[in-house]
Amino acid sequence: MAYKPQFYPGTTSVGVNRRKHMSGDLEKLRDISDADVVTIMGHRAPGADYPSTHPPLAEMGEPDCPIRQLVEPTPGAAAGDRIRYSQFADSMYNAPAIPYWRSYWGAINCRGADPGTLSGRQIIEARERDIEQYTKVQMDSEMTDVALCSMRGCTVHGHSLRLQEDGMMFDMLARTEMGADGNVYYVKDQVGIPLDRKVNVGKGMSEAEVAKRTTIFRHDNIPFGGAQGARKFDEGLIALHHMWERRSKWGYRPE
Amino acid sequence: MVTKSDTEPVQIEIFPRRFLNPDTAQRLLDEIYRSEGVLRIMIQGPNLPREVPYGPAKGTPIEEHKNLLLTLGDQALELKVKVGRIGLELESEEHIEGVRAACERTLPFSFSIKKRKLFHNKLTVSDYAKYGSKVEDERILGLVDPKAKKEKNLAMLSDSRGDS
Prior knowledge:
The complex is a heterodimer.
Chain A: H1 13-23, H2 34-41, H3 57-60, H4 66-70, H5 75-79, E1 83-90, H6 99-109, E2 114-117, E3 121-127, H7 128-140, E4 149-151, E5 176-178, E6 183-188, E7 194-203, H8 207-213, H9 235-250
Antiparallel strand pairs in A: 1-3, 1-4, 2-3, 5-6, 6-7
Helix pairs in contact in A: 1-6, 2-7
Chain B: E1 10-16, H1 22-34, E2 38-44, E3 69-72, E4 75-78, E5 85-90, H2 96-106, E6 111-115, H3 125-131, H4 150-153
Antiparallel strand pairs in B: 1-5, 1-6, 2-5, 3-4
Helix pairs in contact in B: 1-2
């Protein structure tokens, strides 16, 4: 029987969403064009050539190495692209993704990527054409709500702050704005350089929708232990206790 | 701004569920200022920088944060923060209801009002370093960040309340 990864325990909607994020089985909610994603990332102009740090691997004449024969290079590595990044901040007010789950998604589903997890932001580094593709998946899918998540390369704080009046996460650099039509627009790239044109990324989700899609346990939505007042904790919490006990007593090495 | 009273002053903090837009903050402060018994007002929230402070875009102006003004009574202050909390000192506890009514009229979302000690009344070491051993007007104690400039971040309002 083929092994089927379980990814995450529990029957709560948060547990289900966490499994979806980790497995990469994500619902596509919007289609932001490649050029728009590249514009927001700000590493190169849309349509420009990819700068490279080394010649394409096929021209380099690689040494005879069993690992290199085994592992197929990503398109970016094969072409010799630079390493670039995209970084997201997600609001603690039921944003669909949180740093750890963006990292789990990146580490499990993205080849040649280096995810970095911080308290209120999450960065993924990869070869330029690879990271552009990974960023587009994140922005198009249910991992992102355009009002509660935004691409922020620096001055990222906003995750743990209250929302603005219009329901968007606070941004000190005002990179995004809510248009009169209810759509969210990027007016600056991820580091705060003003764009030539506004990039429309669509409408934010309703409060009910983000509460349904979130991977955050919250006492005012879905608590970690599962339904309040239930006779038994959700399996997610029981599994965590189990891991904590094993780690504390034997450091994962029950000899 | 100050009216002498026999009653004990009380300090309260207004904590709205969301950050206030500058126009909502202006409306709320107008309403609060018109209600009776306000001695001191402090607004607090995350910084709205005038230019990008870090990273590759360092120094790029942030046009959205320029020319944000709060006018109150006969004074105008440059708004440098996203308004998240408002601290008030009132002449007495009986004025809290007036402030609560002002918030209910102005804020389109929920808020809480808590009674707490917001402003210290004894000179701290930072105050001593900044003002010396004697402060001309003790009302400024605890009102602004010790590093802030009094001329830019503080306004003394006249007693002509409601005339504006």
